[in-house]
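SAMPLE LOG
Freezer: B-3
Tube label: C17
Construct: single chain, 180 aa
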Amino acid sequence: MGMFSSLLKKAGSEIALNEVAKKVADAADRLADAAEKAAAEAKAEAPEKKAAPALQPKPAAQGGGASAGLSWGEEMPSEENQFNFKGNFVEYFEHIFAEDFPAYSVEKEIKKGFRGAVLTLTQGGKKSLVVELMSEGSCAQRVRKACAAEGVPYLRFYHDHHGWWNTRSYVSGRIRKALA
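STRUCTURE (predicted):
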């Protein structure tokens, strides 16, 4: 009977550990939600600031500049990117999906305060890829963890990272690779 009781104790402790782990994960999600809400409230209350001149997109120098063919650098590349596109960053990504990935349907979820979006590419009713567009100050854990749990590929692009242009070839290339 001693062996049976030790097995019951071990099983009970494993169940308790699983419950503790679940409670910790739930608390972390609530903390992340609270942090995002506080950041959004602080941003809404803060006076409107103009971006520093260094953060303004600069057109590439004659001949393409140092960042020609790249999605990053101090000078904006001449290639189509989210900053020379006639629309906001979500419309830019939707434009790429429509033209480069027409076989996929796109479901869009805009984050609170228009700080980002989650775009889900589906094909035949099945999730093929989740693309998160986010501010560089955002927490990337919740959507990424949910995708990992579902076994769905996940990509993220920062729409406001200094010197990062999200050129069309870069965005399309990463998406093609994730869908393969």
